[in-house]
Amino acid sequence: MNERTLAVDAIPDKLIPQFLKQAKKIDNFWFDMFLLCVTFGLRNIECRELKFSQINLKEKRITLSNTKADKAKLTRKVNQHLDKQWNIKGRQWLRKYMVDLNASLIIRLATSLDELGFIAEEYQLGVAYEKAKQRYYDKEKPQIYNYLRRTLPSHSRQIDFSSFKAIEKMLSRRLKKTQRAYIFISSR
């Protein structure tokens, strides 16, 4: 069965007023959340996980941290670190299992992890090499992830809402309304 679906990444600008009007009819909760999303381009999860501690009404600023960009950077750094370590460990592994008097010289010629993999393939060690590499990554990844998560600087995003009176009013109302940690927790 050929079924065609259309994915929409964002609400077209001309539909936003209608969209917000419908959201307000449903509940102020949805209107408030969508208003914040469409005004500042927040991701759904950034809005849902917005905490009172991230809002400064006096300075009229929202501070977003641990964003999708931060998570992507952390993942990239973890993978780079693992690759750098495997560049050493993989060479050691090949020297141990290659049956060739010139193994050390051959391995030294490799300038990348791909080339180490090609050497492993050439010596019929490709599958065993990849399994050893995966075991190493699985073992080391949690420690590297935790270390980098603690040490990498977080680049928080600052949103100035001083020229958005409706946002300021809504945030003030929400801050007064509840004492929960998160701004958008449904009352239902």
Account of the protein in words:
The chain has a three-stranded antiparallel β-sheet, with no helix packed on it. Helix 1 packs antiparallel against helix 2 and helix 4 packs parallel to helix 6. The chain is mainly alpha-helical. The model has no long low-confidence stretch (mean pLDDT 88). A hairpin with a 4-residue loop joins strand 1 and strand 2. The protein is built from eight helices and three strands.
What is the structural class? mainly alpha
Termini separation comes to 39 Å
Task: Provide the spatial order of strands within the biggest beta sheet.
Answer: 1-2-3
Q: Kindly state the mean pLDDT as a whole number?
A: 88
Helix content: 55-70%
Briefly characterize the structure.
The protein has helices at residues 16-26, 28-40, 44-48, 68-97, 103-109, 113-122, 126-151, 165-177; strands at 55-56, 61-64, 157-160. It is mainly alpha-helical.
